[in-house]
Amino acid sequence: MRTALLFSLAVLCAGGEKPLGKPLTLKSPTPIADILKTPDQYVGKTVQVKGNITEVCQMAGCWTSLVDPATNKMIRIKVNDGEIVFAKEFIGKTAVAEGELRKIDLTREQAVARAKHEAEEQGRKFNPASIKSGAVIYQIQGSGALVLD
User: Fold this and answer.
1) Sign of torsion, CA 108 112 118 122?
2) Domain range 18-148, its CATH number among 2.40.240.10, 3.30.70.940, 2.40.50.140, 3.90.1740.10
3) Could you tell me which residues come within 8 angstroms of residue 66 by beta carbon, excluding any fewer than 6 positions away?
4) What pLDDT digit, counting tens, does each position of 35-78 carry?
């Protein structure tokens, strides 16, 4: 048993996969488009998604955006600071991530504050007038991920 475990770890490392956080528990990912089509069906449940890493938090690595290349649909994976760190070098790689889907209702003021904070993190300009109303955001509170080479 121990030999099999060591062999499995060696294969994972040799394959260029980088595990982050807790081990994945679900057998396969749900397409991001399926989750976003009927998100309330998944809220509060553990989901697993797979996609290309297009952005990461530039300050603490506490979130990443995954895009499904087949549908171009995006979802954000948010983690508690320090539990998992999504490195800037992961941009362009594929990842499988798992966690609880959450629904966040934002007032206009909260949406402005969130967008301003993200713009500061990413070094982008931000115009508060671009936010016209509140927003509903669905994101995954990440527990674990596997970054693939």
Assistant:
1) positive
2) 2.40.50.140
3) 32, 49, 50, 51, 52, 53, 54, 74, 75, 76, 77, 95, 97
4) 999 999 999 999 999 999 999 988 889 999 999 999 999 999 99
